[in-house]
Design brief:
The structure holds two protein chains of two kinds.
Chain A lengths: L1 H6 L5 H7 E2 L1 H8 L6 H8 L3 H13 L4 E4 L1 H4 L4 H15 L8 E4 L6 H6 L6 E2 L3 E2 L3 H11 L11 H10 L4 E5 L3 H4 L3 H10 L2 E6 L11 E4 L8 E4 L4 E5 L11 H11 L9 H11 L8 H7 L1 E3 L23 E2 L18 E6 L24 E4 L1 H5 L8 E5 L4 E8 L7 E5 L27 E9 L17
Parallel strand pairs in A: 1-12, 2-3, 6-7, 7-8, 13-17, 14-16
Antiparallel strand pairs in A: 4-5, 9-10, 10-11, 13-18, 15-16, 15-18
Helix pairs in contact in A: 4-5, 10-12
Chain B lengths: L7 H11 L6 H15 L2 H12 L6 H11 L1
Helix pairs in contact in B: 1-3, 2-4, 3-4
Classes of the chains: A alpha/beta, B mainly alpha.
């Protein structure tokens, strides 16, 4: 689409001239014939004429916004794709005003809040790099500690480091990594190698089977704090009942810290928010009082924007000029082969929440009682597979079995399943490949083989695994 | 069932290098080194440098980036 925008003179030149840098070099790159819709059609399967029409409409149709889910990011070039979308939005001026922009649809309700608070191993709260001495000093002085100036390990790196013995303890809160993370055999080996695994969760799950210490979690009905959604909107979450376990999760974290020698003492979550405001410039104006008064705010919320900022990048980007980045296509290292000729893509469905630790214990299992494998009729026929048959699904890292569903909506050569049930364990087969920049696992591309194990005994009703946006 | 034999640090560095093969070698090496410096835990960087120093077969951009990281 960017190729069409540049070569058909659809660029928002005044926006680019005023707000961006690196345009000429990028435009020269993207105008190359190898990036034309006609050139990439054999790879993408999307008709070039439709791409050209979409590009023209996106550039000239008024406000145009991009919304994307994990189908973009769970690839080896997921980050590159996001940069490509940023290029497209800048080139057409579709950023920095109501009705436009690039908007990630988050996979869980508080992913944004976690990221805002420094859950990335290279950042402190407010997306400030750990190498920034001035930022570290804010915390060093307030807490009386010395924060490391180097990035930490990402989750896949932790598993590798656990196996080599350099990473020895893990505290897992509200995530079932033993079921959700790729290459299950590798993950289980890493968890078993750790000296200490602490799991704090609402229910026991696959990861808790490796835990040396289990700490209780609370449901959203018991929580007192905030969730932040994909539009940076900080919402209060108020409890409707006291925690059944007798303590809030944050109180347990405080007690662990105290037991380790740090005097972490808060009387109420509002004090934690006050500390966030003191230490994080983009949250400087946020308080429970403000949230109670106005309902919710979108950060940045500070002296310049006392009740938050609904639109970002209005007059400039955070870094100053928006930088165009050349986004060359690099194919995933994962390859279909004679042994593993199909491509597996995984996702989620509406009635189950992620690994299903919460939703599998509800009546939602009526809608989705098991993970199934969707196959194109041709791929099924050449393997002697019919709907309802039990099939094996194997990649170079693992093997599982599940029931087959014949689905016309699947492209030839591609199959699909979900990972809501540990008994099927779809992540047993997904590999170590990840996004080059973020190490987000490449859940969407695994070379696999599918073989008939047992023909169905009787006509069974097997539901398709229907993905939803954001899956 | 087989498992990858390339050490994780070398594999991940190769993934980064693959993104910069289209730019001049010097700039590509600087970009790879810059990314690793900004986002990698020190122990991963040490593993990469040790593997490259031991002569592991990898992308020339990774070798050049390791030189910059070592400097």
């Amino acid at each position: 689409m960017a190729h069409v925008v540049v070569t058909e003179d659809l660029v928002a030149q005044s926006f680019v001239d005023e707000r961006c840098e690196g345009f000429e070099e990028w435009a020269s790159f993207i105008a190359g014939p190898e990036n034309s819709p006609e050139a990439v059609e054999p790879e993408t399967g999307v008709p070039a004429a439709e791409v050209r029409a979409a590009a023209r409409l996106y550039a000239t149709g008024g406000n145009a916004a991009i919304y994307y889910g994990l189908g973009v990011t769970e690839h080896s070039q997921g980050s590159t794709m996001v940069m490509g979308m940023a290029n497209l939005a800048m080139a057409t001026g579709n950023i920095g005003r109501p009705g436009v922009g690039i908007n990630p649809l988050r996979g869980q309700n508080n992913v944004q809040g976690s990221c805002d608070m420094g859950s990335f191993p290279h950042e402190l709260a407010g997306y400030r790099h750990v190498s920034d001495e001035n930022v570290r000093d804010i915390y060093n002085e307030l807490w009386g500690v010395s924060i490391l100036d180097e990035p930490g390990l990402r989750i896949p790196n932790m598993f590798d480091a656990a196996l080599d013995g350099s990473f020895r303890a893990l505290y897992v809160q509200g995530e079932d990594i033993a079921q959700s993370d790729p290459n299950t055999q590798h993950v289980h080996g890493a968890l078993a190698a750790l000296d200490l695994v602490i799991v704090q969760d609402l229910f026991e799950n696959e990861t808790s089977k490796f835990a040396h210490v289990l700490l209780p979690g609370t449901s959203f009905l018991e929580k007192d704090g905030t969730f932040t959604n994909a539009e940076r909107r900080i919402n209060r979450v108020r409890p409707v009942m006291a925690p059944k376990t007798g303590k809030h999760e944050w109180q347990i974290v405080c007690e662990v810290a105290q037991a380790m020698g740090y005097p972490m003492t808060y009387e109420h979550p509002r004090e934690i928010m006050d500390e966030i405001a003191v230490t994080t410039p983009t949250f400087a104006g946020v308080s429970f009082d403000l949230l109670d008064k106005v309902g919710s705010v979108q950060w940045p919320c500070n002296a310049a924007a006392p009740e938050g900022a609904p639109i970002m990048h209005v007059d400039g980007f955070v870094r100053g000029k928006g930088r165009f980045v050349e986004t060359r296509y690099v194919a995933t290292p994962e390859r279909s082969t004679r042994k593993y000729p199909l491509i597996l893509t995984t996702g989620r469905i509406l009635s189950q929440y992620n690994v299903g630790a919460q939703t599998r214990r509800t009546a939602n299992v009526t809608w989705h009682p098991e993970d199934v494998l969707e196959l194109h009729p041709h791929d099924a026929e050449v393997r002697g597979i019919s709907g309802g048959d039990t099939v094996s699904l194997a990649s170079r890292v693992g093997r599982t079995t599940l029931r087959a569903v014949i689905a016309e909506r699947m492209p030839v050569g591609v199959c699909y399943t979900t990972f809501h049930h540990p008994v099927t364990g779809a992540t047993v087969v997904t590999t170590e490949h990840s996004d080059w920049a973020t190490n987000c696992p490449e859940y969407k591309v695994t070379a696999v083989q599918v073989e008939l194990v047992t023909a169905r005994q009787q006509a069974a009703s097997v539901r398709a695994a229907v993905p939803v946006a954001g899956a | 069932v087989s498992h990858p034999t390339v050490p994780p640090a070398v594999r991940l560095a190769g993934d980064i290098a693959a993104q910069f093969r289209g730019v001049p070698a010097e700039a590509g090496a600087a970009a790879v080194a810059g990314h690793i410096r900004q986002f990698w835990d020190p122990r991963l960087r040490r593993q990469l440098l040790a593997e490259v120093a031991a002569g592991i077969e990898t992308d020339p951009l990774v070798v050049a980036a390791a030189g910059l990281l070592r400097a």
